[in-house]
Sequence to fold (112 residues):
Amino acid sequence: MDFLTTLKKQVLVIDGAMGTQVQNLDLTDADYGGAEFKMLPDILVFSHPDAVKGIHLDYFRAGANAVETNTFGATPFRLGEYDFSRLTWRILRRTPMAWTCARCRTTRWRTT
Fold:
């Protein structure tokens, strides 16, 4: 079933609090690349992509039809605070791969 057909037939359920799930991973400062980057969960798609996929997969298993990405501040301005503005497009391109991989592991609903 495609997205529009599903939307006409049912209320779509979206995931919950991504930030809370990231915090529940109990990652160390080193997991973020240092204490100064701990407020930048966007980079987890590079350092811990399986953890990000796991969060998305948990939401799909719980019944979500769609998930949001963990790109809380993946903008050149926000990433510029950490001298990472050059990574903006890499983060934005890599993040959907995480939820797509999680989505492919479920059979409830697909967009293809």
